[in-house]
Design goal:
Pfam families: Rhodanese, Rhodanese_C, UPF0176_N. This is tRNA uridine(34) hydroxylase. It is an enzyme of class 1 (oxidoreductase). Belongs to the TrhO family. It comes from Flagellimonas marina. This protein is α/β, with parallel strands linked by helices. It has eleven helices and 14 strands. The chain has a five-stranded mixed beta sheet, covered by helices on one side. It has a four-stranded parallel beta sheet with strand order 6-10-9-7. About 0% of the residues have low confidence. The structure holds zinc ion (2 copies). One zinc ion (ZN) binds next to helix 9.
């Protein structure tokens, strides 16, 4: 029985190109009580590997969080397989708007302590006691209400390139940080204000809404399916789009354009730009916003220091990195003093 990925990303890329079939980028999550995540993990891997599903999936006692790429022709088989698992029957699937056949190149199903690294202790509250789920139309009405406080539950580098108009975008590096900031800011308004929140696909709000209810907030709402589902509904139902800019996504596309507005700036020269990149220096990999001109001038690096290292022969770079441990700034801080135009 083959329970793990065996192909390299390069080999997979070649296979996808040769197959020439369209793939769908899909995400879904579900909080549930899972007795033995390892058994579920193996079950999913075996079934999905056969369907040529790729992606990054976390399974934990508290549920499942999955980001996948599924061949379009296998979608129905994939869907019926999900429906055959009782707690995943009719789970809402977020389907990415932009087609990308190479959004994922491996199938990785991992057992974790949590499905989202949220820094919260599960025992303190009931995560199933969540806020009111609202669709795009109701959300549009709610966020124009003067009694509404709209909060972006994502991290600074995500809201920087795109967010809903009128949203509070906490300048935080982690989900845990934003929970505390919001609670403190709204301490006087737990009963009279409507706390409306959103995130990428809804999973963070699922927990945040339960958390705020536990903390005494009376009117807690969350955008069902997050920005991804909102955009789908806005297009399908011809509603007004109130999201400005790009939706940051956690695959190699980095961002999905929702409106033509460019609300952020190149971190190196300050001109309007909303393209996230990772510093080309392998030892740095800082996530930041860089325009094409700066990318050319800086050899895709975040600083002249990284540029110099990046220009060294690979073996020398490797020797420099030795003993320093792998830097993992991807999707993390996205902050550095070398970036002149990053707050
Ligand atoms: Zn620039
Ligand atoms: Zn760098």
């Amino acid at each position: 029985m083959q329970l793990y990925n065996t192909l390299s990303a390069k080999e997979r890329e070649k296979l996808i190109e040769e197959a020439g079939q369209d793939r769908l980028t899909i995400s879904f999550y579900k909080y549930a009580h899972i007795g033995n995540p390892q058994i579920l993990r193996n079950h999913l891997f075996l079934a999905w590997d056969q369907m040529d599903v790729l992606g990054r999936i976390y399974v934990a006692n508290e549920g499942i969080n999955a980001q996948l790429s599924v061949p379009a022709e296998n979608f129905n088989a994939f869907k019926s397989h999900l429906d055959s698992i009782s707690f995943l029957e009719n789970v809402r699937l977020n389907i990415a708007i932009e087609q990308d056949n190479k959004s994922f190149l491996k199938l990785k199903v991992k057992v974790r302590d949590k499905i989202v690294a949220d820094g919260l202790n599960d025992d303190t509250f009931d995560v199933t006691n969540k806020g009111v789920h609202v669709g795009a139309e109701q959300f549009n009405e709610l966020i124009e209400d003067p009694d509404t406080v709209l909060v972006d539950m994502r991290n600074h580098y995500e809201s920087e390139i795109g967010h809903f108009k009128n949203a509070i975008t906490p300048d935080v590096d982690t989900f845990r940080d934003s929970l505390d900031i919001i609670e403190k800011d709204l301490a006087e308004h737990k009963e009279d204000k409507k706390l409306v929140m959103y995130c990428t696909g809804g999973i963070r709000c699922e927990k945040a809404s339960a958390y705020y209810k536990h903390k005494g907030f009376k009117n807690v709402y969350q955008l069902e399916g997050g920005i991804i589902e909102y955009t789908r509904q806005v297009r399908a139902q011809n509603l007004e789009n109130k999201f400005l800019g790009k939706n940051f996504v956690f695959d190699h596309r980095r961002g999905e354009r929702i409106s033509e507005d460019v609300i952020s700036h190149c971190h190196q020269c300050g001109k309007p730009c909303d393209t996230h990149v990772n510093c080309a220096n392998e030892a740095c990999h800082l996530l930041f916003i860089q325009c094409e001109e700066c990318a050319a001038a800086m050899d895709n690096c975040c600083s002249t220091e990284c540029q110099e290292i990046h220009a060294l022969p690979y073996e020398e770079q490797k020797a420099l990195r030795k003993g320093k441990g792998a830097s993992n700034k991807i999707f993390k801080k996205g902050r550095s003093p070398v970036l002149k135009y990053k707050k």
